[in-house]
From TrEMBL, chains A, B:
Residues 3-95 form the Stress-response A/B barrel domain. This is Stress-response A/B barrel domain-containing protein. InterPro entries: Dabb (IPR013097), Dimeric_a/b-barrel (IPR011008). It holds the Pfam family Dabb. It comes from the Bacteria. PANTHER family: BLL2683 PROTEIN (PTHR37832), STRESS-RESPONSE A_B BARREL DOMAIN-CONTAINING PROTEIN (PTHR37832:SF1).
């Protein structure tokens, strides 16, 4: 039973495409830097739903210990340093997933 | 390039474990009923984060057309009929994923 961390972001008014591109760049480096990440998907909302958030991150890890390793990893903390100043709203949850990874 | 739909729910005060179990039951039937669902994970928040939502659903489908088929499927609409009366808050996004499914 693996663990899936989900975070949705709504950007502050005035956030630029260049700032979102920088978020994507820092997140793209995390799978290589953090071996606990079994899968890592993120990206901007596609604009096909109503009242959607602007950006989503889904991190698949083995268990609570691996999640804590991801959460506290200095490269992840550095990514949060890029993300937090842009945030108007954040929604998150951690759920159990059936598979092995 | 596949599509990932993410929805987070915060339950209204007074929502019971039996009501959440009913949500899980109706969602558990969807992968068999809706062939467009390549993967479907859902469940209650594990309680390891701060200010988390209560429940998450992640649906992986091939593309926008498959997402619309899932969204509009009568069994999914019936599940929403169980979920909506319990909702205090909902957050969602649809993102592109790199893989094939």
């Amino acid at each position: 039973m693996a663990l899936r961390h989900i975070a949705l972001f709504r950007w502050s008014e005035g956030t630029t495409p260049a700032q979102v591109a920088e978020v994507e760049e820092v997140l793209a480096r995390l799978p290589e830097a953090i071996p606990e990440l079994d899968a890592y998907t993120f990206g901007s909302d596609l604009g096909i739903g109503s009242d959607t958030f602007d950006f989503a991150v889904v991190a698949d890890v083995a268990d609570e210990q691996a999640y804590a390793a991801y959460r506290d990893h200095p490269d992840h903390q550095a990514a949060l340093g890029v993300i937090r100043p842009l945030l108007a709203e954040r929604a998150s949850a951690q759920i159990r997933t059936g598979g092995a990874g």
